[in-house]
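Protocol step 4 of 5: obtain the predicted structure for the target chain.
Materials: sequence only (see below). No template structures provided, no constraints applied. The aim of this step is simply to have a reference model before the mutagenesis design in step 5. Sequence pasted as it appears in the construct record:
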Amino acid sequence: MALTAKIRTRDGWAIPHAVVTVTDTTGTQVLRIQADQDGTIHDTTPLNPGPYTVIITAVGYTPTAATALVTASGHAHLGTHTLTRQGGTELPPPGPWTIDPAHSTIAATAHHLGISSIHGRFTDFTGTIHINPDDINTSHVTATINTNSINTGNTLRDQHLTSPDFLDTENHPHITYTSTHLTPTGPDHYTCHGHLTLHGHTRPIDLDLTYLGTGPDPWGGTRAAFRATTELHREDFAMNYNQILQAGIAAIGTTLKIELDIQAVQGTTLPTT
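Step 4 output (structure tokens):
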């Protein structure tokens, strides 16, 4: 007899610690086996022909059940079974991931004159993500942004933003973010809790984080994609400059909408091509 199965995450990654339990029609356990490092089950324990109930479990995942029919030849092929994270939340495979700035965007939007918006982005930044294999909620991210890389598409405006009125890049050349933990909020959604240091001031900032999935890249690596948003208040970071127009309207809004579209490469290095 050969009982075979593959246990995978939603993105197709092996779950090496998955356990398959087989019971007969009386509810008696007849087999219990753990998947190998490739998330594969292959067992040769003799079983009588007939139907069996198969329960697949893994720490941190929602159990699933299926029916297996052992044929007269003694074979039962269960195929590929997908386990989902408990609560429906998913993250990439564990270990280090490196943010790829060439395929990521950190953007900020501010109101202008109370009727439109100014859009800018930072073009120079680095970051790492670490997925904890034992407790995904303690996974963390760190990022460093070069403040002098702000680009709004207008040279004079960018020069003003890098001046002491705003970012003061000469005295504060970097913005840093260090997360502390994650809180699941729904399928593939988290709140990322952390601390942002901007303009010499550190404040707790939460990111509304969405995990978008993983896939291969043209350089033989694996990439994960994320989207995160938050709002910042300039006065929290002592950036109080503004110009009040005759109608009493502030030229630049005090609230900044931050949007991050992030690609990260599995491992500690980025491709060189």
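Step 4 remarks: The chain is about 5% helix and 55% strand. The two ends are 49 Å apart (CA to CA).
Proceed to step 5.
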